[in-house]
Amino acid sequence: xxxxxxxxxxxxxxxxxxxxxxxxxxxxxxxxxxxxxxxxxxxxxxxxxxxxxxxxxxxxxxxxxxxxxxxxxxxxxxxxxxxxxxxxxxxxxxxxxxxxxxxxxxxxxxxxxxxxxxxxxxxxxxxxxxxxxxxxxxxxxxxxxxxxxxxxxxxxxxxxxxxxxxxxxxxxxxxxxxxxxxxxxxxxxxxxxxxxxxxxxxxxxxxxxxxxxxxxxxxxxxxxxxxxxxxxxxxxxxxxxxxxxxxxxxxxxxxxxxxxxxxxxxxxxxxxxxxxxxxxxxxxxxxxxxxxxxxxxxxxxxxxxxxxxxxxxxxxxxxxxxxxxxxxxxxxxxxxxxxxxxxxxxxxxxxxxxxxxxxxxxxxxxxxxxxxxxxxxxxxxxxxxxxxxxxxxxxxxxxxxxxxxxxxxxxxxxxxxxxxxxxxxxxxxxxxxxxxxxxxxxxxxxxxxxxxxxxxxxxxxxxxxxxxxxxxxxxxxxxxxxxxxxxxxxxxxxxxxxxxxxxxxxxxxxxxxxxxxxxxxxxxxxxxxxxxxxxxxxxxxxxxxxxxxxxxxxxxxxxxxxxxxxxxxxxxxxxxxxxxxxxxxxxx
Amino acid sequence: xxxxxxxxxxxxxxxxxxxxxxxxxxxxxxxxxxxxxxxxxxxxxxxxxxxxxxxxxxxxxxxxxxxxxxxxxxxxxxxxxxxxxxxxxxxxxxxxxxxxxxxxxxxxxxxxxxxxxxxxxxxx
Lengths: 588, 124
Fold this sequence. Notes:
The complex is a heterodimer of chains A (588) and B (124). In chain A, the strands form 6 sheets. In chain A, strands 2, 3, 4, 5, 8, 16 and 17 form a 7-stranded mixed sheet that branches. Chain A is elongated and about 145 Å long. Chain A contains 18 helices and 21 strands. In chain A, helix 3 packs across helix 4 and helix 9 packs antiparallel against helix 18 (542-560). Helix content of chain A is 34%, strand content 21%. With 124 residues, chain B is mostly helical. Helix content of chain B is 60%, strand content 0%. The longest helix of chain B is centred in the middle third of the chain and has 59 residues, at 16-74. Chain B is rod-shaped, with a radius of gyration of 45 Å. Chain A binds chain B through residues 66, 69-72, 122-124, 127, 145, 150, 152-154, 156, 198-202, 222, 226, 483-486, 555, 558-559, 562-565, 568-569, 571, and chain B through 43-44, 46-48, 50-51, 58-59, 61-63, 65-66, 68-69, 72-73, 75-79, 108-110, 113-121.
């Protein structure tokens, strides 16, 4: 069979056309029909959304001292699908990261694209590893920028600062309460990588810059904080109490200058601490305040006109029968005015003032002083304490509450209540946040002092303050609270410890002293509270345990604040040594 | 003159003009193509440089932050106190006679008993 030239041409063209048609069909299949599938496959292989981590803001004290900062570290990640010589790479990784080479190689053999080899690798170590990789012409490893939160002062201020857990989430303290400001917002960038895993900058996609977290400046003065912590540490070591805490506040602004609790923990190593060590007891613990609470009844009775400065109250010579029970004073007193009742810390005098006021009015003043409510300090978990309304009182409550029983308050509440007396009658909102700043130092928010309410007029506050000066003078209950060069006003508190099984724990006391200095123009209010000091019961009083600690802290604080002495120096008394006597009555 | 012979010759003259046009177009296309490839290569190379520069900046920033963290740690109060205790550094008291004052301070009556600061005394 012979084909003509035309036939041959037609056949050849037909074959060529068929081949081209086949290829075209395949091309259409790949580019149109399976476009989505292949595009997705390519994207999975080469496109990545790279997270650009925002830098967490720092926490600073009022003078700019760094309290919490970030230490850059890296997370080393392997992509087994991009490796050329996994055995050599495994050896190299094991050598640099102190890992087991066999285990690393096993991980590589899974072929996974994202294998976390080690977290929190120091920057220098990671740089060495990658430069060694380049030398050996290896690939398949990359790193992610990360940061570890560090607290350069260790245990100091640990309760206030809080810490981050292993996932980088805040757990307590300012870290938690101010997390929205500190955390910032992560950015992202869509990138394409080549077959070796390197980014092709040319094909960089949508990008969003991270917003770094803002710096938070606290009202804390680290100079004062260190003084408070040192003295509290010394007391904790000497007296071996269950807990001890101290709060130092500027009464005019409500700014917390120092805040410490014992036992404490190191926020750099939160895993080593017990839950009990992590509690910021100044806002989380509630205690019966004891006689420090007498400032409430004295202020209320004066302000309501139930007593005046000259009113004489008969203190029943130390034994007052009411509601079928006997209320006792430490010593038997006859007639005393309000000033003397505070100085001598008479339980009977205080109870009688509360009875003159009536339960409802007294309760109103208790609430006006800030007890039974959260004061709104910028720390998580603050409790309101426990103040029952008069409807739930029994017969004895009106005589017990004025001396700080049948009521539970936080140490911060006591401090702020004393600030009311120190600043002329205003209940200031306690605050620990001073301002929020950008990482360049521009202030974006400045917190101003806030008056929560006017509790008593200045005249009443002044009268109570004058009486509280007498507490630290000879004849008062807290002569050991005196500070050379200054007049100190304050009030002791000694309360039996409430037993978890009901009633009071025998021989266990929570003792405290809360005072301010200089009395005529208070620069700070300081509370020292010691729970169950291991000393003789005869010495376990606020005036003998907490007052000397107050004196030491206040003296150093006055020096730190460069306060001008206003009184001539006085010879200091030695604090008595523990003995084993065990008196039944405690009232100061 | 034999004009018939000349007319019957099947001549195929080289069309220089067209060749030049085609050559020009080809050259332009080639140059454009090569230029495109060259520019692409350049872009990739610059992209690579950008990536490396960014990496270096990140590294320097990280090193800076590491050093800042170290400085903060070494100058923290506990660290300084530990150094004072070890005797590596010492806190030296500045005696009153070494302090220049615009107004003389009021001295305590009994020497050594006034323990608080009195720097503000006498200031306006």
